Amino acid sequence: MNKNKQALQVAALRNGTVIDHIPAEKLFTVVSLLGLEHMENNITIGFNLESKKLGTKGIIKIADKFFCDEEINRISVVAPHVKLNIIRDYEVIEKKEVYMPDDLKGIVKCANPKCITNNEPMATLFHVTDKENCVLKCHYCEKEQRKEEIVIL
Amino acid sequence: MMLYKLTDNNMENRSLVTIAEYSKEKILYMLEMAKQFEKTPNRKILQGKVVATLFFEPSTRTRLSFETAANRLGARVIGFSDPKATSSSKGETLKDTIMMVSNYADVIVMRHHLEGAARYASEVSPIPIVNAGDGANQHPSQTMLDLYSIYKTQGTLENLNIYLVGDLKYGRTVHSLLMAMRHFNPVFHFIAPEELKMPEEYKMYCRQNNIRYVEHTDFNEEIIADADILYMTRVQRERFTDMMEYERVKNVYILRSKMLEQTRPNLRILHPLPRVNEIAYDVDDSPKAYYFQQALNGLYAREAILCDVLGITLQDIL
């Protein structure tokens, strides 16, 4: 694919944030974790785009939106290797990565059916015990969950 | 200090949810408090206080022990022992029940079948919560009475050989004991059938905390010859996926009096009770059998816990 066509797929953004290198199968989870469906900004979502690294990838471009770290780090649990480009006046002024926070509140469902969080109207809370391998420990039932067991609420 | 976390409204919350929150100093302090209550169990220091015992899951021993502790300290007790007779059976949330009861009582002792229930209750409650068991998760007052029993019979908690026998996979008491003993340089021996052996996460915990351990599948007099504490647990049929395996091991993990002949004179046998058949009745007559006194120690440990969460110090009871 030539460069121009690729450029057409990801049309230029004047101001805002580009979230790139999202694994294609995680794209819509990222959309929902960031609550994009409730935003009124101009948003472009690219799905199943070609990627040398990932095979297929997703990309999200949000006009006039600049996330704070807390907002954007929510997606680290599903897409830890995304790249953020902060755009101002058509220029990339900053490149960022996401970081796994120490705690995840109200994001992940506890896999233990006997955990209080699955039986009361309350927010879940997990402590990240191993950021490298994404191991979480439920604050309430104290059970650990591995990356492959994680279910997003 | 970690022990007394602040709640949102900045009131001191002295809840006891897990033994892991106790430092070495705090454990020794609580044992000293239990010792004082053993000397004089009947005191009126909680006169005018109301203790609520909320048992969302039935438990005779633990409830009677807490209620006796409250009564001997002069407190009045309210509560329920059968959730079928309460509003939680009408669909009331745990939070609402806790908020309602906290209007009436000074402390809540609760047992719940859901894991993490006590932690959550301690976060929403304006009064202290004492966890009397939350599912398979934590049961800190049992651990305190186990520690007190070990301390009392051995004169120390340091450098002991502790043998855990039976169901080490699901046995919540053995897991909590293991974690609480990390401060005291023990050597653990894990004696269990393949299907019920100590889970990897607790062995990893041992390695991380420099706790030495040895694993065995055999249970006989040679293996227990160096034991200071023999902590027996029940091997339950319903824990097995392979019934052939259950039939093979069900009589292996039974302690009989003749196995005690070569054991150390200071050996004491503990069991969280109820016993079914894992300790033969002929062991009861041995001076090394300690499980009934162990249950009595629960009373003193729980008197200490109730006082501590209500802000009464060792100084106040000396």
TrEMBL record, chain A:
InterPro entries: Asp_carbamoyltransf_reg_N, Asp_carbamoylTrfase_reg, Asp_carbamoyltrfase_reg_C, Asp_carbatrfase_reg_C_sf, Asp_carbatrfase_reg_N_sf
GO cellular component: aspartate carbamoyltransferase complex
UniProt domain Aspartate carbamoyltransferase regulatory subunit N-terminal: residue ranges: 8-98
Cofactor-binding details, from the entry: Binds 1 zinc ion per subunit.
A Pfam family hit: PyrI
Keyword Zinc: yes
UniProt keyword annotation of Transferase present: yes
PANTHER family reported in the protein's UniProt record: ASPARTATE CARBAMOYLTRANSFERASE REGULATORY CHAIN (PTHR35805:SF1)
The family this protein is said to belong to: Belongs to the PyrI family.
Self-association and partners: Contains catalytic and regulatory chains.
UniProt protein name: Aspartate carbamoyltransferase regulatory chain
The species this protein was found in: Bacteroides graminisolvens DSM 19988 = JCM 15093
